[in-house]
UniProtKB/TrEMBL annotation:
Organism this protein belongs to: Patiria miniata (Bat star)
GO biological process, one term: DNA-templated DNA replication
Span of the signal peptide: none
Record domain TEP-1 C-terminal beta-propeller: where: 187-242
Iron in keyword set: no
InterPro entries: Beta-prop_TEP1_C, WD40/YVTN_repeat-like_dom_sf, WD40_PAC1, WD40_repeat_dom_sf, WD40_rpt, WDR18/Ipi3/RID3
Keywords, comma-separated and alphabetical: Repeat, WD repeat
Compositionally biased region (Polar residues): 391-405
Protein name: TEP-1 C-terminal beta-propeller domain-containing protein
WD repeats: 117-148, 190-212, 270-311
Sequence segments annotated as region (Disordered): 389-409
GO cellular component: nuclear pre-replicative complex; rixosome complex
Length: 433
């Protein structure tokens, strides 16, 4: 049987059967599963059709699998904190992760941390690159949607000033739940969804609000088809709304209700989930819609007829559904990854270069070849011993007796902090007299 042209990836919060599953959504067959841990919402990426990356739930870990390999254990990358969302650039050279209120940017081929963006006030909930990778869009629990110019993020600054966002959209009244970028690069349209029961359509070129869609319940996920004829909004009541973006007359604000389906096909409703719809994805030809929900099911819908084709059962709440072209070597277990993915470092590139130390630059996804000879293993041991000896020599040369140790610096910092508190207390007492 020939492999399908397009497959669907899904994850659930339990991780009982698998972490990531690849489905033939036409037949409902599970083509391949990847076990170990569980993935959080908006935390699944496919790199170059060779690797799968997912952010663990409640842990500062990113799981990685070589997609072509079967029966393998996932590799792990330790991050500075719990990853709330994950996104990869279209050319697979950059990986962005939301960690608390900051956005960390890594280069995938070297593992260097290129930038840390810290303009959100609360946890970052969603990230999305444009189709040409020129912009990064982020949403957070602070009700803000920010647009970042990728070139300004990567450009080194001698004064170490933080990068400023290109646009800050503050029209939402409650936390952002999802963002979606359309086709068109710097001139594309962006849709943001929020718990305030609205989806807002933005023009990326000018930063202006094009239209505001108001729904009956909080919006948890959003997506558009490739042609951007329709917008799909998954809500907390389990309904999925399909909105015609080219309906006339043109209005700045449109109210979409499940009890008022228009005869002119301005909007329609997909009914089938019993709990909030957490994720949506549309196939490349725009005829199939995939939805995941907290009711432990992923549903496949025919867009034109609004009929449910099939239901894929999971053991936990479905956190991600993604349509992707079928990787060339998905079913070939003998193939080997060629993409140079390395473990992500936990410090900025400038800090690492100043310190003169490599903070963990080992390849994170290399799997030992079972046909390696004894001579190769001996050479590998020799290289490891030589590397450890060089590192030990560097540590001994850098720890000079005149330089204060870390413990001394921490004690000095604590002393200065106590002094500052006493000075503040004395100044407050003088002001109160």
């Amino acid at each position: 049987m020939a492999a399908p042209m397009e497959v669907m990836l899904s994850t659930d919060a339990s991780g009982m059967l698998w972490n990531v599953c690849i489905w033939d959504f036409h037949s409902g067959t599970a083509l391949q599963t990847y076990k170990g841990g569980s993935s959080g919402p908006r935390g699944l990426c496919c790199l170059s059709g060779q690797f799968l990356m997912s952010a663990a739930i409640g842990k500062p870990i990113i799981y990685i699998w070589a997609l072509q390999k079967k029966e393998q254990q996932q590799q792990r990358i330790v991050c500075p904190g719990v990853v709330s969302c994950l996104a990869a650039s279209p050319d697979n050279t950059l990986c962005a992760a939301g960690i608390a209120e900051k956005i960390h940017i890594w280069q995938t081929c070297s593992g260097y941390q290129l930038s840390v963006l810290s303009h959100h006030y609360q946890t970052v909930t969603c990230l999305c690159f444009t189709d040409d990778g020129s912009h990064l869009v982020s949403g957070g629990e602070d009700n803000l949607v920010m647009v970042w110019y990728t070139a300004s993020i990567l450009q080194p600054d001698s004064k170490m000033k933080s990068c400023e966002p290109l646009f800050v959209w503050s029209k939402h009244a409650l936390p952002i739940t999802d963002v979606h970028c359309g086709i068109g690069g710097a001139r594309s349209r962006v849709v943001s969804a929020s718990h305030d029961q609205t989806c807002k359509l933005w023009d990326l070129a000018t930063g202006q609000l094009l239209c505001n869609f108001v729904f009956d319940s909080p919006v948890c996920s959003v997506a558009m088809d490739m042609a951007e004829y329709h917008l799909f909004a998954g809500c907390s009541d389990g309904n999925i709304y399909q909105v015609n973006l080219f309906a006339s007359p043109v209005q700045m604000e449109r109210h979409i209700s499940k009890n008022k389906e228009s005869e002119e096909m301005e909007s329609s409703v997909f009914r089938g989930h019993s709990k909030p719809v957490t994720c949506l994805s549309v196939s490349m030809d725009g005829t199939v819609l995939a939805s995941g929900s907290q009711d432990n099911t992923a549903c496949i819908w025919h867009v034109n007829s609004k009929q449910k084709i099939r239901t894929l059962s999971h053991k936990g709440a479905v956190t991600n559904v993604v349509f992707t072209p079928t990787p060339a070597n998905l079913l070939d277990s003998r193939s080997k990854p060629t993409f140079p993915l390395q473990s992500f470092k936990r410090h900025l590139l400038s800090a690492e270069s100043d310190g003169g130390r490599n903070m963990g630059g080992e390849i994170a996804v290399r799997v030992p070849d079972q046909e390696s000879t004894v001579e190769d293993e001996d050479r590998t041991r020799e290289r490891v011993l030589i590397r450890e000896a060089v590192k030990q020599q560097q540590r001994s040369s850098t720890n000079k007796p005149n330089e204060p140790s870390r413990q001394q610096l921490e004690q000095e910092l604590e002393r200065l902090t106590q002094t500052n508190r006493l000075l503040f207390k004395a100044a407050a007492d003088l002001a109160s007299r």
